[in-house]
Amino acid sequence: MGRDMNLLAQSEHSLIAGSPYEGMQGFSVINPSTGEQVSYVTEVDEQGVKQALHYAANTFNKLKASSASQRSHILQRWYELVMEHKPQLAKLLTQEQGKPLKEALGEVDYAAGFIQWFAEQAKRSYGEVIPSNDVQHQLTTIKQGVGVVLGITPWNFPLAMITRKVAPAYAAGCSFILKPSEQTPLSALMLAKLALLAGMQKGAFQVLLTSDSAGLIKPLCENPIIRKLTFTGSTQVGAVLLRQCAGTIKRTSMELGGNAPFIIFESANLENAITGLMAAKFRNAGQTCVAANRILVQQSCEKKLVTCLIGNVKKLIVGDGLSEGVDIGPLITLEAKQKALQLVSDAVTNGATVAYQGTEFGGQFMSPIVLTGVTADMEIAQHEVFAPVICIMSFVDEASALAIANGVNEGLAAYFYSQDVSQIHRVSLALEYGMIGINEGMVSNPVAPFGGVKHSGLGREGGHQGLDEYLEIKYLCQKFD
C-alpha cells in the first residue's frame, strides 16, 4: 500500500485479514446534517465472520511470539499515521457523525493520544518476583494477552472509542475484531487501514460491518474463540451482552450509561462553573456518556447563575459541522431529537419551566434548551438526555445535593464546583462515581482510568489500568533441588 492510497471509496466493505470482504447486501451511511449519502457499505455474512475468527485466532498465536518492543514500535507508527491524516479523519468524522469540525479535530488528537500512550505502556506489562517462604522455591508472575478480543463501539466518539480499546489490546498481544456502529463505520475502516499501513498484522485488527448488530454479536459472544468482550454503549445492551458471554466465562469490560450530576455550591467561582458546564454539556451536542445531565445549583446562587448561563447559551451557533463557527451539530437521528423533546415536554407538564429555548430547526438539528425547576422524580432526571438540554435542579445544602446526585443507578462521571477545601474533600469521598471533575468540566484523558461504578460499567480504559484489562496473570512456582 502506498502513502497516497485512497483510504476510502464510494463503496466500502468489512476488513478481514487486511482485505475488503464484499457482502451481498448493505446500507447507506448518511450525513446527519444534510441527509445525503456519504458512502455505501456492504454487510458481512456468516462465512466472513468465520474467516475473521480464523485469522484472529492464528494472529493471536503469532502475537504471543512477538516482543513488546515490536508491538510498541507498530503502535507508535500507527499514531504518527493518524496524526498525518488528521484533516481527512476529522472531515470524515464530521460527515458521518455530525459534530463540528473543530470538535472532530480534537477527537483525532484524543484518539491518537490513546495509541501513543499504549505504545509506551506496551513495554510496561511487568510481572513480579514474590519472596518465597522457603529457599527451595522461586515464585514469579508474568502477564500475557488474554486472547482474541471482540470490541463493540458507539457512534458518538467513533475514533476515540476504538483506539482506547484496540491500542491496549494490541499492546498486550491480543488480536481484535471490531463491530463499529452502523452509523459511523467509515471512521473505523480508515483507522484499521492506517493500522495496516503501520505494520499491524493482517489479522490483528479486523472490522465487521452490519446493520444487524444483535444477529452478528450474539453468536460471537457465545463463541469460545473470543476470550474477551469490550463494549461501550447503553446499560440495557450491556446487561444483555453479559448474559450472552456468561456461558463461555469471558473477560468483559464495559463502559455503560451515565447520568452525571454537575453540582455548583455557593462557594464556587460562578464564572468558572459556567465555563465548565458549557464544556461538559454541549460537547457533541450533549451526546456524550459523561455529559452534565443534572445541574444541581445551591438555592442561594441559582438566580445569578441561570441569568449568566443563559447569556452564554444564547451565543451558541447550531448548524452543519463543516460550516465555519458552528458550536452544535445535528443529533445522530431524528428519533434522538424526538426523544429529547418528549423528555422536555414531560418535564414541563410536571412543573419545570423553559427558561430559554433557541430557534427551532428542522431535520436533526436541535437548539439549546435551559429548564429550571426540574426535580429528581421527573423522567428527564432519570435518563440520559443525550441532547443540548440543561436541566437545573436546586438544593439547599451539601447533604441534599449528595442525596440527589447519588440517587440514581448510574455512577460514571460527576462534577462539582466549590472553593471550600474541606467541602471538596467531603464531597469527593461521598460521590458514588468512577470519575469526578473538581472545578473542571472535562475529565477524559488517555493517561487516566476511564470508567464507572454501579450500573455504569465494569473495568477501566486508559491509564495503566487500561492495559491490564487485556492481560492475564500467570503465576510460576519453581522448585529447586
TrEMBL record:
One example GO MF annotation: succinate-semialdehyde dehydrogenase (NAD+) activity
Listed Pfam families: Aldedh
Q: What is its EC number?
A: 1.2.1.79
Q: Give the enzyme's main class according to its UniProt record, as a single word.
A: oxidoreductase
* Domain (Aldehyde dehydrogenase): residue spans on this chain: 27-475
Q: Which GO terms describe its biological process?
A: gamma-aminobutyric acid catabolic process
Which UniProt keywords are present, listed alphabetically?
Answer: Oxidoreductase
Source organism's superkingdom? Bacteria
Q: Where is the active site?
A: 255
- Per its UniProt record, what PROSITE patterns does this chain match? ALDEHYDE_DEHYDR_CYS, ALDEHYDE_DEHYDR_GLU
- Give the record's family classification: Belongs to the aldehyde dehydrogenase family.
Q: What is this protein called?
A: Succinate-semialdehyde dehydrogenase [NADP(+)] GabD
Q: Which gene encodes it?
A: gabD
